[in-house]
Amino acid sequence: MTARVGVVTFPGSLDDADAARAVTRAGGEPVPLWHGERDLHGVDAVILPGGFSYGDYLRCGAIARFAPVMSALVPAARAGLPVLGICNGFQILCEAHLLPGALTRNAGLRFISRDVRLRIETARTPWTSGYTAGQQIVVPLKSGEGAYAADPGTLAELEAAGQVVARYIEINPNGSAADIAGICSDSGSVVGLMPHPEHAVDELTGPGSDGLGFFASVISVLAGA
Amino acid sequence: MTGGPGPSGQDTVSVAAATPGRQQPFAELGLTAAEYDRIRDVLRRRPTDSELAIYSGMWSEHCSYKSSKVYLRQFADKAPESAALLAGIGEQAGVVDIGQGYAVTFKIESHNHPSYVEPYQGAATGVGGIVRDILAMGARPVAVMDALRFGPADAADTRRVLPGVVGGISFYGNCLGLPNIGGELAFDPCYAGNPLVNALCVGVMRHGDMKFAAATGPGNKVVLFGSRTGPDGIGGASVLASASFGNQNAEDGGESSKRPSVQVGDPFMEKLLIECCLELYSSGLVTAIQDLGAAGISCATAELAAAGTGGMRVSLDAVPTRDASLRPAEILRSESQERMAAVVEPRHTDGFLAVCAKWGVQATVIGEVTDTGRLEMTWHGELIVDMPPGSAADDGPVYHRPVARPAGQDALAAADPAGLARPATGSGLRATLLDLLASPGLADKTWVTQQYDRYVRGNTVLAMPEDAGLLRIDERTGLGVALATDGNGRYCKLDPYAGTQLALAEAYRNVAATGARPLAVTNCLNFGSPEDPGVMWQFEQATAGLADGCATLGIPVTGGNVSFYNQTGGAAIHPTPVVGVLGVHDDVRRRLSIGFATGGASIVLLGRTRLELGGSAWAQVTHGHLGGRPPRPDLDAERSLAAVLIAAASGGLLAAAHDLSDGGLAIALAESCLRGGLGCRVTLPGDPFSYLFSESAARAVVAVRPGSQPAFAALAAEHDLPAEVLGSVGGDSLLVADCFEIPLAELAAAHGGTLPALFG
Prior knowledge:
heterodimer; A: Rossmann fold; two-stranded antiparallel ribbon; 25% strand; B: seven-stranded mixed β-sheet
């Protein structure tokens, strides 16, 4: 049975088509989900894609967390539904308190679009199980508010519990605390990632295909479930 | 509806008829006395305030092309036969058939004046405006590019303008979800005070999805949708874009007093408009559509009506505003962004409004199409506009401005750079290469492009610093389009006819260097004041050069934009036509990058190298010199070169290709090494300086795959294209035998350090 992976479109979502393409390439079936519906249509996993939901007015992700679809997503995520928030999706997950901490303005105060090298820190999440811990991947980063921030206690807890999913190596492009590029919930099922694996699914249009593993991982996990 | 002087105190049609002698502020609105008299002749009375507002916008240089029209006709008159052209000049953007049922529309437009006054919003709304033009053709916008020119890189004002412009493009384009796939960045003292911000957008649709801006069908509804109308951008076209800047130290506060003429952008609303429009199109709910740009509601209503059945009745009270105190003339002149106007059959009105509601886009019926031949507008029930729409949209003034070859032109041509001191030793050549590579105009543009999203939508195959942007259109077949923009104000200053052909040739060559076949041309003609006969001579020469060049290359001009008045006081910019060329790529998987990444590939120089230094980067960077003749355009040679590049890419013979332009072979080799990460070893067949730094046109450097050299040599010979084998790809330095060797790390440091050092 093909895994059905929902991709939510909020007003201002931009990378929804890219996320859906990545799901297809990894062998899954992308299912469009609309922000205004309180219905997940029985999907097996959900991606909150990148973009500028609601124009990122007020604060990135702050309005999206109140969208009707989130009233269905939040309890499902707490119950173990695999959820991946990419960029703006990560910001939404933080605003919705599914993940701790916040994303703040880049250290240089400018939008940054570049390829970054990451180290996958844990393969225990359904989104990274196809990687090995310590594996290095190159994917694009493109954000203005991508600096991960959390209080020292939270950072210590994330490290101790193995909730740091990916870290920037070589350089920290945006001033993220502890070079953090992505984190997960304590169960591991909810992952937030600032860089864009969906833009690295083939050599032709991305820096490579290193990002495909996020989508292949969840589809493989769901197939085995 | 035809009430007399109403209680509102409005300047109604009847009031105007009854008070022929009332003084009107036509000069403040940018109209001449003769133009004002002509309006009175058309209406057989004085215009109302609202009518005057409409004419002042529509008859502005920016909207009416009154000084350029007589020259622009030759783009159609001399156009080569092209089966690919589905819509040409006169539409909001040209539409080109790229095969497999796809059509592509593209256009470049200036936002120069607003970007000087308020760089961030000026540049942002430049992107927004061109994207709506493409959207209004029925296409999904799929990418943007920007061609930017500023004053000296180290000037204090450039540090204000450049980061603002780049930030504005980044803010708007990124938030819109459109990849930025290329453009230009140049610096010259002539652009201090008059930066050039030219934005290009390309869109894709299926054949048959094309939309036109013609209000047909009496009884059909006119719907205004998108943002509310506010007091921003009032007079943007007529006051700001159609006049030179005065003395910046003027007591009136200088150019900051024009700030209210600059619009403010909301890319989130534009993103919603895009998705909303595409759903409206696919649901078959739209009869005609037009974006609101320069001259706002004035332009949209007058143009829609003039192109359609001929009449329209509009209730201006129905226009949603952000400011209840706006008067009708202000509503008509406002250039608030993110607005569109559509003509909708009554049976589709509810469906139309429902789609808009789904996307959170406000939509309001403001009028309907009539067969009266008149554009009529009411305010509080009183008739305030009653005019033939064609008189504003089509029958504006046309000027044959005086033309005179500038007095200094001969002296400029006589100042031949051949007499300038040239490096003769290996170490001198080495230092010259590094100087050029680090000069702001040739330096690594990453500081700029790192602020632009190139990945969104997942179809970007090539982007800066490649020769052209390349987009995949069809994932299954690999069909794609390549786009490049080029311009060289220095060449054009020396010889605007040849300089414009060189810009065309470079863009054509850049497209071909990816393996794509050039198909069509757009242009943004940036010039000084048309009231200066010398500027008009430059314009005459440039447009003739472009029209003749397109005829020779066999690719038509599909549309474009003219920006005059790029001057401060008496000092005009160099004539700077920016030419965009679009090409079709049969299979983007066979695209060519500029990067040397295949060790052992043979490096071959294509084309004929002569000693041509007029207007060159070397003359500028080393000597601060501008004089002599620009390189000789050779469009027949360009055709041969393009044919070889396209065939070689398709045949898989090449590992890389890079066009030669500013800085010549030296810069091209350095860029290819840095892009691909491998060095090269070359031996020059003649005078090292000429080979390294001359800017002869119709040339490219290619890396031929190991084993493919015989086939490639035969291909070049078949097209009579000179092909000199220079050496091979490999190592970690750029080595020119008997001259110098530069490690890649040293090249990278020189190339990459400049812009961050200047702009932080």
